[in-house]
Please model this.
Amino acid sequence: MQGVAQQPVVQLTVLQPSSETMQKIAGHKGCATQGGSGKASCGSGAGQGDLAPEIWEKIKNHPCYSEEAHHHYARMHVAVAPACNIQCNYCNRKYDCANESRPGVVSEKLTPEQAAKKVLAVASTIPQMTVLGIAGPGDPLANPAKTFKTFELIAKTAPDIKLCLSTNGLMLPDRVDTIKNFNVDHVTITINMTDPEIGAKIYPWVYYKHKRYTGVEGAKILSERQLQGLEMLTERGILCKVNSVMIPGVNDKHLVEVNRAVKSRGAFLHNIMPLISAPEHGTVFGLTGQRGPSAQELKALQDGCEGEMNMMRHCRQCRADAVGLLGEDRSAEFTTDKIMDREVDYDLETRKAYQEKVEEERQAKVAAKQAELETLAGERSDIKVLVAVATKGSGRINEHFGHAKEFQVYELSTAGAKFVGHRRVDLYCQGGYGEEDSLDTVIRAINDCAAVLVAKIGGCPKETLRKAGIEPVDKYALEFIEQSAIAYFREYVEKVKTGEIQHVEPGDAAIRQGALVAA
Model:
């Protein structure tokens, strides 16, 4: 470091996008397209009728870019990029942490050749795996040779798989054309601030052009490079998702400004994620007691930022070696000792046939939702309620209450069922009996929900939920989630009209508890 310490600070200026640039961005990103509803629509909740055909083709089976797709399609990450060029106060990259599910954590690092073999093994075993991402455990663009060699090998051996990368954005402007040349159609950039004063509280240092920058100086370089890279990507027709970590008291209010900045530069999605700050993870924020946001605080910020550019709300903050559907991790099935000597028959036709069946199921779900939604036509009500859903995937209510490790939360209104997030919980069923302490944590996690839709539930937790003001509903077992949620809402509104129940706003858990017990 001594030999480069005297280098001058690199001055970067990123101007607001020109009107010509914005026209290019609007022409491809999908946020200005008119859907079947006649309203501008884009983002993770958008359907085929809401987007330009070329955009739909890019996201229709991408579980991160399409909320609908995440019920049906899987992704995998390969850990080929160990080095990082910035330090974040919420990150501590550990290895061999199989029980931790958070970004930056992996059980084993891979060479590009090992990664390519692993992709073939996973894609042959999980035919609905459609996306390969490189997200660490460091930064892919701080490891460009390994990252692009991996993409090169995958493109040759598994050409049907979409390629993605996630980056902090520091080296992005230098690699945009390479990304484009490798047909990487999806890039995620983590942008936590546009104000370097705030950035200095998040990033202790940034290593750029052979020099380490700290404080406001480092944060300024990082922010300018991130925004420049985002604009360059969108000009080239590459879909960009922006991840932001919500840190209460640090950047939570500022993220509204971040949202405006990334939207103006053509970001397709904005994913605001909660800070993970358990002390045992050893991060600066964890060790200094910085709390993460509550589910309610997160939803309020997401709601406040949602506009023409929809928010991504189904993110699971995946490990850098995650495999499977969002919300599950099957990476332990595909460790190098299990796959390197294994013969893999990568059959494109079999994968295609399987995915066609998946699409049939998906279309049936969409049709069922639409048919149910038509039953609300003409209904006039300002009522909105939240419901929690226990699901193992495929867009169905197919999980036992006691086996659920998370609940998906939907906001119901006369407009239909809108996915708004997920709540991780402690497992209630422990080897055949219920754990009462775990039940308490479940109730706290979903106490703003009017009901929980499950495939099955025992008598004891059913009664406890009712006393807490949460209606347990198992009559829609194995049915489609959104169709069933809309049916539940229609009955709910009718009961409110007849006086059978009292409507309570989601935040008034105590009032709802009394109303449900009285009923």
Summary: The two ends are 71 Å apart (CA to CA). The first helix runs from residue 19 to 29. The mean pLDDT is 86. DSSP finds 16 helices and 17 strands in the chain.
